[in-house]
Amino acid sequence: MALVGLRRNLCHLCDFQIHRALAVLRSQPVSHIHQAVREHLCYWFFALRPTPSRVRSHHPCWNNFHSENGSKTQPAGQLVSPRVHDWDRLEQNIKHADEQMFYRRLNDFTSSEEVLSFVSTLETLPDSGAAGALQRIWEVGKKDDAGRLPEEILDNHVFKALCFRLEREAPTLTNTGLVRALQALTLSHVDPQTSLLENLVAECQNRLQKGGLEVHHLCILGESLVKLQGPGCVMLEQIIAQLQGEELEKFSPEDVVAIYRILQACPEKVDQHQAFLSKINSFTLSVVYSLSPKSISQVLSALVALDQTQALPLVIKLGKYMVRYIPRFTSGELASVLEAFIYFGYSDRFFTRALEQHVAALCLALNPEVVSKITKYCSKKLIFSKPILNAVAESFVCHSEKFSPHQISELIEPFGTLNYLPPNTPALFRKLETMLVTHFNHFPPKTLLKLLHSCSLIERHPVNFMAKIFSPYFLQQLQGKEPYLDRLSLAQLTQLFLTSILECPFYKGPRLLPKYQVKSFLTPCCSLETPMDFQLYKSVMIGLIDLLGARLYFASKVLTPYCYTLDVEIKLDEEGFVLPFTVDEDVRKRVALCIDGPKRFCFNSKNLLGKEAIKQRHLRLLGYEVVQIPYHEIEMLKSRLELVEYLQRKLFSQNTGLHW
């Protein structure tokens, strides 16, 4: 390991003005960390001073350096300490055990100034330690999300000395010191055109071509080059090629995660690297239990970015393992996990239960992005979780001003989708209406339409906004530059218009023009109805034939003039007798059978979805006698006779008025 006395480097840099830098550091308040550094590390410093038995040349300025740190020069024989037996070990230039103590010290610091002050007390520093110090300076000193260091840190004399040393000693640095130094400077957003970075990159390229870098070094270098030169750099292809030739057993869990991050940076080349990626996906299954919460989040994000739908076994294993770590995820990491689960269509009851506990405990402290992702996850997977929905409703009421229009939409839509009203419903929708009135123009047209349509599903009708969304101006905005409006938007507009007629008779504003109205809500690509479960329909049809005597007495999949499609329709005359479905005269009443399969309910629940609830509500308002046939009641029947008796009770009760 190449060791260079940092002090000796500094004293040859006259432009660094060491005395002034140390005076500035000395003038700052001494924190408990500074005191710890002085207490434990000054022994390193004094033990390494020149003695008669040790021949070492020092610049005179180092005598001043000692005095500026408030220390008096003492003969070696007069230095008495309980740690005298540790001196010989510490003088070996911070070997393995000492490096661990060095990094523990670095991790204790909470500001760049503390790290620089700590470094300035060291007699010697290994190259990996110098790189580690730079990295810690970046971790605690970055001033914005981009990770840039403040100018006062970049101009600091000790920081410059660290950089100067790395530049001068690049050819003699260890592989670890070289790649970590490049990583730290890249993260700090140091100008890529500086001679320091150019020298480090050139040295890395030289060692790469000679094949002298191990797997871990290749991974660190690859990530640094992605940030420094972009995913198209030639060296990155060489790194990936070398990684492909390595045995997977040599990859540590950290290396695997780094490879995912590297490949995620160049998704356009995923086909080129798919064979390697498939091997990594399979290998990762064996190291899942070694991954940290942060690593799990990064792997899932990469799988989404690289469209690894074939890696579902890995997603499932990650999902099962990470349940215990939900409280340890940061807001951003949890949002990435939820986005991945939405993308891959994964859900797990243990994960949902852990998520419920986490949300309930931190409902008011959760980041708006996480709150919206949680509700989006519940909505996409049709997870009916009262604890989660109640918590996010409370969060919105208390912190509505922190939510963006898109986040508000993602938060409110699940209530309509899952057909649920929380305990604080009045406060929730008062707050929502206030936000819409105040920021109406900030909502993208399609986002606004989805939001208002979701409200109507749970009978919170947006009467005050109907005139605006039916106006030609809004419809033009909704269409944008497209030649026509998309099918889903037209269906949502039509259902809102039907709602205004059936459920809001007091609404007297503009109506939706016929050219914007659809004929059916049941379409293959963007349906507002759930298609009928065919197997369930076959069972019910057999029972109806036995009950009514012939297939002639009921019709299936009937499209009404009101856009809804009936699963089964039965016609009655004025006395309540069943008519053949071909008869259109003398029909006095129509019975709509809703044969509701599992997909019309929330997942593992008997709670009907919002789009099915509004359909049954509208059919009743249109004069239909709605008879619901839910799948969980059919599944309880053990014979054909029980099925006929069940249908007879449903159809020929006193409420329906049917006669057999």
TrEMBL record:
Keyword Transferase: yes
Keyword field contains Manganese: no
Organism name: Trichechus manatus latirostris
Subcellular location: Mitochondrion
GO cellular component, one term: ribonucleoprotein granule
GO annotation terms (biological process): mitochondrial RNA processing; regulation of mitochondrial mRNA stability
Keywords for this protein: Kinase, Mitochondrion, Transferase
Domain RAP, residue spans: 591-649
UniProt-listed Pfam families: FAST_1, FAST_2, RAP
Name of this chain's protein: FAST kinase domain-containing protein 3, mitochondrial isoform X2
Molecular-function GO term, any one: kinase activity
SMART domains according to UniProt: RAP
